[in-house]
């Protein structure tokens, strides 16, 4: 039986994760932490799941590593640079940390397809939209997609006039544009362009609970089977896409 402590279990994502953990055989939820909780409530957990806030996430992760627990991070705001800064602590702890920017299998597959296809196009840009209450931008999903696109290519994407603020924030050289507005849950468009044509790969989340549950199950198993730092749910999926 895997003992699980969930930080941020009363939030939107945390509530979905809690429901999955409670229904999944082989896992026992032993603690649900809120902003008023003490980190000592993580004691005894084999796996700590972080679904908190960008400002609180690192504190939870550090406390979990100090206790020798594995960690599954679902909180946005972890850039590649920030992840690299905590890698030595993970290695010292001898455990594993899995960062999942998006638990939706469709979103993960869409990002992987965009990365693979971007090798054939000079231009790539990302437009992402989320609800107006989302506190971070660009989204963790868009950041991860941009990083995957950059990693898949031999040359940087073309980004003319990138010095102009209206051209979006450049993540790994890829322009990313964020929309925050009511009436939307989550949407991402990866737009690839070349001479005479363009390809748009779009993913929409319409029901987070239904969309995230399969990916959360994949992430739970992956988090308990790996050591070191792992970024992205795609590492636990056989997508069959060539690099």
Automatic annotation (TrEMBL):
Tell me which UniProt keywords the record has, alphabetically. Amino-acid biosynthesis, Cytoplasm, Diaminopimelate biosynthesis, Lysine biosynthesis, NAD, NADP, Oxidoreductase
GO CC terms, sorted: cytosol
Gene Ontology BP terms: diaminopimelate biosynthetic process; lysine biosynthetic process via diaminopimelate
Q: What is its EC number?
A: 1.17.1.8
Q: What Gene Ontology molecular function terms does this protein carry?
A: 4-hydroxy-tetrahydrodipicolinate reductase
* Highest taxon in the source lineage: Bacteria
Pathway in which this enzyme or protein is active: Amino-acid biosynthesis; L-lysine biosynthesis via DAP pathway; (S)-tetrahydrodipicolinate from L-aspartate: step 4/4
**Which Gene3D superfamilies does the protein's record reference?**
Dihydrodipicolinate Reductase, domain 2, NAD(P)-binding Rossmann-like Domain
Q: Name one Pfam family in it.
A: DapB_C
The main enzyme category here is oxidoreductase
* Segments forming domain Dihydrodipicolinate reductase N-terminal: 4-103
Q: Does the keyword NAD apply?
A: yes
Dihydrodipicolinate reductase C-terminal domain sequence ranges: 111-236
| PROSITE patterns, per database record | DAPB (PS01298)
Q: Does the keyword NAD apply?
A: yes
The UniProt catalytic activity note for this protein reads: (S)-2,3,4,5-tetrahydrodipicolinate + NADP(+) + H2O = (2S,4S)-4-hydroxy-2,3,4,5-tetrahydrodipicolinate + NADPH + H(+); (S)-2,3,4,5-tetrahydrodipicolinate + NAD(+) + H2O = (2S,4S)-4-hydroxy-2,3,4,5-tetrahydrodipicolinate + NADH + H(+)
As for family, the record states:
Belongs to the DapB family.
- Under which name does UniProt file this protein? 4-hydroxy-tetrahydrodipicolinate reductase
> What high-level taxonomic lineage is stated for the organism?
Bacteria, Bacillati, Actinomycetota, Actinomycetes, Micrococcales
Annotated gene? dapB
């Amino acid at each position: 039986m895997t003992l699980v402590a969930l930080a941020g279990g009363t939030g939107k994502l945390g509530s979905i994760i809690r429901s999955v953990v409670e229904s999944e055989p082989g896992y026992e939820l032993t603690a649900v932490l809120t902003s008023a909780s003490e980190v000592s409530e993580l004691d005894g957990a084999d796996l700590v799941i972080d679904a908190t806030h960008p400002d609180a996430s690192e504190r939870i992760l550090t406390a979990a590593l100090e206790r020798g627990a594995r960690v599954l991070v679902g909180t946005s705001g972890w850039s590649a640079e920030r992840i690299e800064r905590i890698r030595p602590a993970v290695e010292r702890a001898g455990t594993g940390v899995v960062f999942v920017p998006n638990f939706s299998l469709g979103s993960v597959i869409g990002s992987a397809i965009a990365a693979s296809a971007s090798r054939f196009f000079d231009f790539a840009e990302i437009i992402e939209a989320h609800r107006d209450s989302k506190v971070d931008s660009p989204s963790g999903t868009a950041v991860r997609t941009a990083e995957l696109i950059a990693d898949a290519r031999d040359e940087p994407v073309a980004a003319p006039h990138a010095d102009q603020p209206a051209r979006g924030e450049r993540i790994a050289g890829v322009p990313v544009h964020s929309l925050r507005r009511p009436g939307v849950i989550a949407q991402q468009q990866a737009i690839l362009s070349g001479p005479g044509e363009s390809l748009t790969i779009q993913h929409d989340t319409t029901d987070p609970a239904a969309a995230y549950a399969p990916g959360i199950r994949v992430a739970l198993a992956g988090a308990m089977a790996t050591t070191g730092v792992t970024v992205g749910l795609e590492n636990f999926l056989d997508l069959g896409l060539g690099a």
